Amino acid sequence: MARTIAYTQFDERSSWFYEAIGVSEGMMGRTVGAGQVYLEATKDAKGQWLQGGKTYTIHVPANVPVAQFWSFTIYDNETRSFVNTGTLPDRSSRSNIQKNADGTVDLYFGPKLPAGKPESNWIKTIPGRGWFSYFRLYGPLQAYFDRSFVLSDIVELKSN
To answer: How confident is the model at residue 4 (pLDDT cuts 50, 70, 90)?
Structure first.
């Protein structure tokens, strides 16, 4: 008899209620072009927890399927609030970020700006503190719902 692996998504469900506590209809909408949806990450591409003392990057595709804008924000694991570095831990398509020639965007996270990378694309983290992220799509379009839009994983970089 073939054995089927079952998944409960217990970690995902408990994570949501630990991090966000509440939910509104606008956060879980299924209407193309309205509301917002959240893509959460707590681990890097290798399955390791995101740590404030390490440096990471994520490659955001060109033409993210949104009617309004996208936003990438990081939060402290313990406080569930913004990572408190004295700067806003968020970058979005509405902010002054540097785009690549093909319209993609590379974002960076770490305690220090990686050498040669634009400060406008960097979010500062705190060594010794874990963090998690939300990539929000405001007014998600069909490519999000039919899953043809794929956001890459967060990848650890070598320290600079």
So the answer is: low
CB 118 within 8 A of CB 57: no
Amino acid sitting at position 91: R
Single pTM value for the model? 0.81
Question: For residues 29 and 66, what is the distance between their CA atoms, to the nearest angstrom?
Answer: 13
Classified as helix, coil or strand, 120 is helix
Question: Cα–Cα distances in Å, from 75 out to 40, 51, 72, 93?
Answer: 11, 11, 10, 19
In the chain, which ranges are continuous DSSP H helix? Answer: 10-19, 142-145
Spell out the domains of the chain, with CATH numbers in brackets.
26-157 (2.60.120.600)
Q: What is the mean pLDDT of residues 48-73?
A: 96
Tell me how far apart the alpha carbons of residues 13 and 35 are, in angstroms, rounded to a whole number. Answer: 21
Six-digit token string for 87 = 């700067």
CB neighbour class for 12 (10 Å; exposed up to 12, middle 13-18, buried from 19): exposed
Query: What's residue 18's pLDDT?
Result: 46
Q: Which residue has the tokens 């959460």?
A: 40
Query: 10 Å Cβ neighbour count for 111?
Result: 17
